[in-house]
Design a protein that fits this description.
The chain is mostly helical. It has one helix and no strands.
């Protein structure tokens, strides 16, 4: 009988832990998604900026050659 009670307590504790972990993940997910989105946007801006700078440099080089 003691073993059954211990198993039930352990099972209840595992369920509670699982619910707690799910709540923490639910709270963190929007923050992590926004952080990743912001980071990607910043990187794309940097890459596009570099690309634009390279194009401007190319145009200047053509003008200098002419």
């Amino acid at each position: 009988m003691r073993t059954k009670a211990r198993r039930e307590k352990l099972s209840d504790a595992i369920v509670l832990l699982g619910r707690t972990m799910a709540a923490v993940l639910d709270a963190l997910a929007p923050y992590l998604i926004q952080t990743i989105k912001d980071t990607v946007e910043d990187e794309v801006r940097v890459l596009l900026g570099v690309s634009g700078d390279i194009q401007k440099l190319g145009k200047k080089m053509w003008k200098m050659e002419a």
